[in-house]
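[09:14] KT: can someone run the structure on this one? pasting the chain below
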Amino acid sequence: MGLFDMFKSKGIYSSLTSEQKQEMIKNGELKPLYLIGLRFGGSDKIDNMVYAPSQAVEQKNKIDDELENYMKQGRTVKGYMCIPSYKGKCSIPFKLKIQAFIDGTEQFVRNIDIW
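[09:31] RB: done, structure tokens below
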């Protein structure tokens, strides 16, 4: 059981200290997740990044793949937003909501439950 699993299973993730977060980043248990993917022109700066466990990063990449496939089909993707939600003072989001419009009218919504 990794440190992330310990925090998740005990329900004390919101009390994660800055030092513990840095240790989890160092150990690879938390990875950068870009709100607007780099492949879509998103910045690699801190204002476009949150830290999350690798499974959440993988889920976000799959959702970005899905949107990219729409674009490869010649469809338009507009109004893209990736909205993190937080609990308490924890700097790691517990949930992400990704939304966009495909061809102007078809609403695209995906949620990632992180913890």
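[09:33] KT: thanks! Helices lie at 3-10, 18-26, 54-72.
[09:34] RB: yep, looked fine to me
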